[in-house]
Amino acid sequence: MNQKKLIRNARAIVSCDGQDTVYTDADIRIDGYAIDAIGKDLDASGCTIIDAKGMFVYPGLINTHHHFFQTFVRNLLTIDYPNLLVVDWLDKIYPIFSEIDSDAIYYSSLVAMADLLKHGCTTAFDHQYCYTKKTGKSPVDRQFEAASLLGIRYHAGRGCNTLPKSEGSTIPLAMLETTDEFLLDCERLISRYHDPSPNSMAQIVVAPCQPINSYEETFVESVKLARSKGVRLHTHLGEGENPIMLERYGKRTLQWAEEIGFVGEDVWLAHGWELQKDEYEVMARTKTGLSHCPAPAVLGGFPILDIPAMQKAGMNISLGCDGSSTNDSSNLLDSLRMAYLMQSYHSKQRGGAPSSYEMLKIATVNGAKTLGRDDLGSLQVGKAADLFFIDSNALELAGMLHDPANMLARGGVTGAVNLTMVGGKVVYEDGHFPGLAEEVLAKEAEACCSKSLRNFFPEIFA
Ligand SMILES: [Zn+2]
Asked: Ligand 1 centre and the CA of 174: distance in Å?
């Protein structure tokens, strides 16, 4: 196969580089996985040509928080997140999670990753904490199978819950692991999959699920392991657990995390809507990242992050769609739009809101920084060719084509993209995954959901 490609004559290339360059009527030349030139009328010798006439080209989106396995518990009005207290919702949904098996992990991940790729996401992080008797230790392995079938970059967060209900957690017995079991499996996954080199398609993150659902020891040992192996750390924080942490440890969660070393440039946290202004400074000083997930905040009725104040304090914010039981969709363009509108809603009280383009950089440049990927996040020479096309000839886009950088979130561009490329390889184009029988996979996934879950909980899936 030809290693060199030329994306020819794109109508606009929104690079998200340091100068916010938007190229017009320009080409991108790719050698192997990386971009080797961007400009007008580039030399095409030896290149396979990809015609981009009329296309707007954007850097691939980077998703920094998700739970793929929840894709099979979507659209359940019988356990409606917006209309239940979180604790009641957890009590109802965890028994379903307990029945998830290895095939359900594989197919639900495949569905989530397909949704992500179709909507311009090229690098996905998943926080996988569903380990049941039926899955054994297989989930992350099954997810890498799915990722390599579709060609998405995958950063796997190996999660866990170690604290039993009898000691104050919300976790059913069938989903508990010991700290040792967890650490051992993290070590196995790191040695089997973790690749820190440029253009890496596979990385491992040590990611105990939530401070309130594991022993402190689990987090302390996670820090030791991650630092000794040079991998990153992730957990949920500031999502309503602070009262419990104050009762249990006499301190707020971020202070607890800082004292045990679970902060730093190699750490990012999901949600953070409970963070206080003084804690923004701690996040910024320690260079700890934050994944903003707009959908669960809206569906759950939680406070909306003050992103301008957080950024002013120096925090790095990235974007996540979050798990499908609190979003019901893995469409990151949709989350981009939602985040933009939510910030704008508060603009008068807060003295401004990020522009649509600034939100795009949160979902690209900041996402890359969050995952420690200096080879991703923008379209520049030397970076990986991770990108997507939007067809500017579509009738519904007419009238807003003068500003491609601001068009996506502002203009509500949330449908399937025209082409998605990961590391120079086209993985989605004109409604198809090249080489894959999508209808067959969709039927298999639907059947798997019934076999693993619907048949066990007919009253919930009714
Ligand atoms: Zn989450």
From this structure: 20
CA 392 to centroid of ligand 1, rounded, Å: 34
Residues 366 and 399 in one domain: no
Q: Which residues contact 25 (CB under 8 A, 6 or more apart)?
A: 9, 10, 11, 40
How many angstroms is it from 147 CA to the middle of ligand 1? Answer: 20
User: Over the stretch 248-285, which tens digit does the pLDDT of each residue have?
Assistant: 999 999 999 999 999 999 999 999 999 999 999 999 99
Q: For residue 129, how far is its CA from the centre of ligand 1 (angstroms)?
A: 10
> pTM of the predicted model, to two decimals?
0.97
Query: Are 186 and 159 found together in one domain?
Result: yes
Q: What is the CA(269)–ligand 1 centre distance, in A?
A: 10
pLDDT for residue 2: 57
| Helix axis angle, 356-363 to 332-345, nearest 10° | 130
Cα 320 to ligand 1 centre (Å): 9
- Please state, in angstroms and rounded to a whole number, the distance separating the CA atoms of residues 121 and 258: 32
- Compute and round to an integer the Cα radius of gyration of the chain: 21
Once rounded to an integer, what is the mean pLDDT over residues 308-331? 95
Evaluate whether residue 462 is within a structural domain.
no
Furthest CA-CA distance within the chain = 68
274 and 329 housed in the same domain: yes
The tens digit of pLDDT for each residue in 16-49 reads: 999 999 999 999 999 999 999 999 999 999 999 9
Look up the domain containing 396 and give its range: 4-60+383-429
pLDDT at 82: 85
**Whether residue 292 sits in one domain with residue 412:** no
CA of 367 to the centre of ligand 1 (A): 16
